[in-house]
Specification:
two-stranded antiparallel sheet, mainly alpha, 315 residues
């Protein structure tokens, strides 16, 4: 009971801090300034931003495709694409993605032959893939542009290099463990078996591509107003993503705006983030809700369990 109350208080505090950051960012600009800036974004930047967002969601669907193979219940790609896109398009906007998207994932996967334990493993596997992508892209961006992270966080360049080195080493350690450790690992009174090296390597690749696409989508919005280095945008995007994941604030509201101002001060930065939110969060949410409604009508329990492939054991 006390633990649940404590977590609720932390969530309320996080939302409060995010609201303050958002207010502090917006208070200096009028809605007319922001609207004018939004209208000035070229269509080519919007189209490319949307394309990179689509690339990110495609990578996220590969997370699930790898995950169901890992738990020994491989499905056809269109199934994992549907479950991943619908669950994450909602989870990204609701917050606490592991729970909100997890509930939608369970709704789909339980009808396709996966147990609650299987779905829990899928969520953990996808979480590890997210961490691998964050560390890989973050390590590259921080090593190549340490001054940006130093200015944003107030840390020294040496500290930034230290964090970047750790972030670069951990994915390599994960791959080595996947290659050589076959015994289950114990954590939180549960056993977890590492995936085999090919799946672990695929995790690293799609996790990295996902965050590279997210940063590229944001970069298209910012570069519509000023010269913005992709690596600088990637560094700021990674920091904002980490803060958003820790705080569980839906869509990183307030956190992303406050960090982007570091790259592009003025109403243009707010307009760029609003455009990015529409492209990466709101459009997928609208599509995801429609797909959820259609699939609830079209898919009945047991309809597609026959599409399960062979059942290898934790490949």
């Amino acid at each position: 009971m006390y633990k649940r109350l404590f977590l609720k208080l932390i969530a309320i505090l996080a939302v409060g801090v995010a609201a303050y950051l958002l207010y502090n960012t917006l208070k200096e600009y009028t809605w007319d300034e922001i609207y004018t800036a939004l209208r000035s974004i070229p269509f080519s930047h919007l189209a490319l931003g949307l394309g990179f967002a689509a690339g990110s969601y495609l990578c996220l669907s590969c997370f699930d495709a790898l995950a169901v193979r890992y738990v020994g219940k491989p499905l056809r790609f269109h199934q994992t694409l549907l479950a991943s896109f619908v669950s994450l398009s909602i989870g990204h906007n609701v917050g606490v993605a592991a729970l909100s998207s997890g509930a939608v994932r369970y709704r789909y996967y339980s009808r396709w032959g996966l147990s609650a334990a299987d779905v829990a493993l899928v969520i953990v596997f996808c979480g590890v893939t997210v961490a691998l992508g964050l560390m890989t892209v973050g390590a590259g961006a921080l090593m190549l542009r340490p001054q940006d992270a130093a200015e944003l966080t107030g840390l020294s360049r040496e500290a930034i290099f230290g964090f970047a080195a750790i972030a670069a080493i951990l994915p390599l350690v994960y791959l080595l463990c996947a290659a050589f450790i076959r015994q289950p690992l114990k954590a939180f009174n549960r056993e977890f078996r590492l995936p085999k090296l090919p799946i672990a390597a695929a995790q690293l690749v799609v996790g990295t591509l996902n965050f590279a696409c997210v940063a590229a989508s944001l970069h298209q919005m910012l570069s519509a107003f000023a010269e913005a280095s992709y690596l600088k945008v990637a560094a700021v995007s990674i920091i904002a993503n980490i803060a958003a994941i820790i705080s569980h604030v839906p869509g990183g509201i307030g956190v992303l705006e406050a960090t982007v101002v570091h790259i592009l001060p003025g109403a243009e930065s707010v307009a760029a983030v609003i455009a990015f939110r529409v492209i990466y969060y709101f459009i997928p949410l609208a599509i995801g809700l429609v797909m959820l409604a259609i699939s609830e009508i079209a898919i009945k329990p047991g309809d597609e369990t026959a599409t399960l492939g062979e059942q290898p054991q934790h490949t």
